Amino acid sequence: MAHIIDLPLELLEHILYMLDPLDVSRIAQSNRFFRKVVYLAPNYQRFWRGLYLAQPLDDPRDTVTYLGKPRLRTRSFATRSAMATETAQIDTGDVRLASSVEPSDIDWQRELQRIIRARTIVRNPQLCRKGEWKEVLEALLDLTTTLPPVPFAESDCTSRNVAWVQCLLQDGAFLDIESTMNDQDDQARHKWEEAVESGDRTQRMTERQAGRDDQRRMYDLTAEESQLLARLHTWVGLTQRDVTSPQARIASQAFVYDLRNFGPENEFGPFMLDGTMRVDWRCMWALVHAYGMMWIEMEKEETGDCSSRDADMGRSSERYSCPLSLPFCQSVIPPGTNLDTELDWAGVEGLWYIGYSFLDHREFLVLGDALDTSIFEGDDVPEMHASVSVYFRVIGIEPDPDHPTRPKINYAGEHDGRFSVVGYVKLTPDDQIRWHLAGGNSDQPVWNCEAIGLGGVRSQAGVLGVWSTVFHDAEDPVGPLWMHRDKFIVD
How far apart are CA 63 and CA 456, in angstroms? Predict the structure, then answer.
């Protein structure tokens, strides 16, 4: 009697490639032959490479990091020899080899398993094991921030990773898991208080509350995990939950317009307040949320859409494209360009659009420590937007010992011969692209701006940060600022 294992190995592998990786794992657990094919063959990485490339994901060999560095690095000869010696000792029995081992620095099995595990947790967070949140978030971030570059700013988004991540996260449930749990905690606490007041202190209520506490502890994220989640949210951009939750938007606005969140410790920018100058991704997400929603509203006005500020916003966001989102995050690297030898590696030289939003901050201030967030409610929010175009030119390069291939770039620019800016671009201690600029009339700087590059280097997602005055008085204004390059100069 013929069995499926009698088929040629190439055909069996092709069949397995058509299955979901979880189904491949189940098959490998059910049959010794398939277990050897999937896990024990000397060239098992070749099988996992085929299974990885059968998924709707980018080939990692074609991708670059957000700093423009190739993802692939070939192993040394010694490493390849050690790997060949190790795999040659595995007994593969009757498994027929289709090709020889093709070494690379990519552990195809581990990479795909990390991705599929992350997908499982996103779909059902209750399956997350204790201490696993960091690994899940890092897997999603690796997939999100390591993308194939596009040759020109006008190029369409070509990344399969982008489409996969958007499909997985666009509803916003996973990215908003901390807020969701807090809301459920408030509801559970309210029900518990009602039960206590009514004298209903049954064992069932006690057990339900205990189960709720256990689930809450499982979802508690460490400070590092919260930053990873916020960074992922910043890259993905606005989700359906973000554009349909007025209270979440108010919270973001209240954060970015509050000068108390910025001080000398973070140089009045989107950095941690501990003096390390590492990026505060919770701040960056609040900036994306506040400015992104304003961008959508401006596009609505330009098209004559007169719907109310919050009504039907979820449907509106599908019609209006916000550039502060994942489809705009691919690095722009023109053909033949090697950023490791390019002095203007950040693509500073050129014409830049600078947009900023502001409000009469005096309406936002009240006595004491409380802020009057009611000004953000309704359709008459006193939030305004302005923009200016400035041509930046590189005026000097300074070596950065910590980042030899990404030196500090000094630049200057002017607008209409009156408004001038000077600034620099350099990497932060946590390897993010920092933009600083000071601007004003003549030689008197008035405005201070600190920002971080969104997406990959030179991407059309642009640069997002905080503007304020150079004086930083207690009642000075502050607000979000976004820049993107209007015109690239390609030699």
Answer: 11
Tokens encoding 462: 């642009």
Half-sphere exposure (CA, 13 Å, Cβ side) for 405? 8
Residue 437 phi/psi, 5-degree rounding, is -150, 150
Q: pLDDT truncated to tens, each residue of the chain (491 aa)?
A: 678 888 899 999 999 999 999 999 999 999 899 999 999 988 899 999 999 999 999 999 999 999 999 986 533 333 333 333 333 333 333 433 333 334 468 999 999 999 999 999 999 999 999 999 999 999 999 999 999 999 998 888 889 999 999 999 999 999 999 876 555 444 445 554 555 556 555 555 444 444 444 444 556 899 999 999 999 999 999 999 999 999 999 999 999 999 889 999 999 999 999 999 999 999 999 999 999 999 999 988 887 766 655 544 445 445 557 999 999 999 999 999 999 999 999 999 999 999 999 987 666 665 456 677 777 887 777 789 999 999 999 999 999 999 999 999 999 998 877 778 999 999 999 999 999 999 987 678 899 999 999 999 999 999 999 999 999 887 788 999 999 998 554 44
Q: 469 near 449, Cβ under 8 Å?
A: no
User: How many angstroms separate the CA atoms of 137 and 163, rounded?
Assistant: 18
pTM comes to 0.85
481 and 384 in contact (C-beta within 8 Å)?
no
